[in-house]
Predict the structure.
Amino acid sequence: MRQTLRRSCAACAKSKHSCDLGTPRCSRCIKRKAQCLYANQPLTAAPPAPSGTLTHYRFGSLDPFNSYPHTRLPRQQVQRLIHSFLNKIAFQYYPLDLSPTSNPFLVSWWPLALGDPVLFHVSLQTACLDAERLAQRGFHSSEVLMADSVALLRRKLEDTSLALQDGTMNAVITLATIEYGKGNTSTSKMHVDGVKKLVHMRGGINAVRQTSPLTARMVSWVSMLVMGHPQFETQDDDGIGHGIPPIPEWQLDPSARHEWSELAGADDQEVRNVFLRLRHVFARAQQRGPFPATRLHDLTCFVVHRLLLSAPNPTPAPPPPTTECVRYAIVLYMLIVQGPTYYSHAILFNTVLARFTAHLTQLDATPRPCGSLDLWFLAIGLVASAGTAHYPRFVARSGAVTVCLQLRDWHDVLGHIRGILWLETARGEHVFRPHWDGILGSAGPVRDLVVRVLPGTGGSVGRLT
């Protein structure tokens, strides 16, 4: 007669870690070269890792997941939600890695969820909300999962050792995104405040990153999107501190010479520093090949945090418009090149666009010779403002500057942009070029535009009417 209902091995149970129930030894004991003893031997061995997606599993046959935490939903529905999470939601949440053998939601998040009732319920809830939105028959099941998720989370937070686990942070930040998507901003921000406290207790976001890069990425990125501004500091340029770390390519060669001529009007040292280092990073990427998607996201997260954290208070003395145009243009450019990740960054993006447009309007108020920096501003503005009320203004301005600089085609435009700041990616040219093909293909309207936009400036950038 069995003395206990525990299924995990003795070593995992003692250390309070989830056990994958592998036989004859679980993966954690194999990794630690530890003795692996089961009080109740698993009925079946863990299935081999699939070579592709998990679509070949059939519900109603052998359960490929061996066991999972109990829920109030019917078993067949749970299995459908598991299937949806592993085949759809994991890749929607983490488009940085579309391989089923390396996507962290499959190889690290899901194993945690199988041993963590809170994270399991939250994970099912993401799949359930997706299914119920498509079915349009209400959200009964997801509401059941939400109620149980919150109840289980409160119980877990009573134990500090359990509260500080990666799985707990994953659950809390996911609950924040779910509530934010429902429009429950106050509840969403409450979850962000909670996960920030957990990160602080763990020793900072970089300490979290040491055990789970996925958790650190999600917490730092999603918390910024929910709150509308960065919630964590960054490390310094040498990678010292408890904040978000820079990527290795961020380091500069001390023997190299660096020019500042393009930023003659930008007197903010932080903006200059980021601009210089990004130019260095992009040049190295061009020599060594494109960035992996995860590395690009880490760079974007670091740069966006660094620039938004260092943005000055506009009162009482407004900052120089050139400086702020460069600041917000870099932020927009990094968000454009990266694309959406985990969760839509549209609200943050539109906030930054509004600031960029306001500072560009101030900059345009003073006539000056047009140059590559103006073209770079406009290229970013065109892409960022597409579909908004700002777009016609950027189109008009871009047409005028193409005449000033005597640009004939996209390759002329690209030459100027590359001279400022440009990362060679497959996405980049595809996103930027169509706007310029449309502008440069309208020679007559552009000539009429110059008469209105640049009357008597003699090749200078002037005030738009």
In short: The two ends are 87 Å apart (CA to CA).
